[in-house]
Input
Amino acid sequence: MNNSVGNTGRVLWAGLRALLVLTVICGVLYPLAVTGIAQVAFPGRANGSEVKDVSGRVVGSELIGQTYNLPLKSGEEAPAPDLKWFQPRPSNGLGTNSVNTQYKLILSGATNRSGDNADLITWVKDAKAAVVEDNSVPGYTVKPSDVPADAVTSSGSGLDPHISPDYAKIQVHRVAEKNHLTVAQVDELVADHTDGRILGFIGEPRVNVLELNIALRELIQG
Output
């Protein structure tokens, strides 16, 4: 009986020691080592790929899309887009979040609608009509055939911070008119903030909307 109790005690004590050692190694030392290496080797990415404006204020992350809307008016179900800024991809199907109030669309996910879903078809048609209407200004008319897919559909995550150069270009005339700039000025801005394919062959050319709008603000303010 005593041997049985003693053996049980030794096994329990060995298990407790293993738990304590593994807790220190895996729960303290390893996270500290990884955090330290990340802060030294990749400080920007380790801290959320923050984007700062000219004043040094953090205004977002280059990995998370933001919306640019006017204040919600009485009777409106959704705020209207602020057309002085470049607009991101739609984020249909995402809910709101009560924890992080800075980003209202932080619930990441796709709409999960099939290509023949009636709701999705309606969203795409409405989005295309809105893109045509919003971006057609005197002397420049957007044709429905000019509207790229990313202008009317959300990404798989719903948080895509990028748009295609084609979508950015059809917004140029509207942004120029709203901000009293020349088309050439805004066109150059888009060209300067268009990133090519990674390593020359991976992915597609893209424009980060947040970084583009920060540059636009700087241009407006002179």
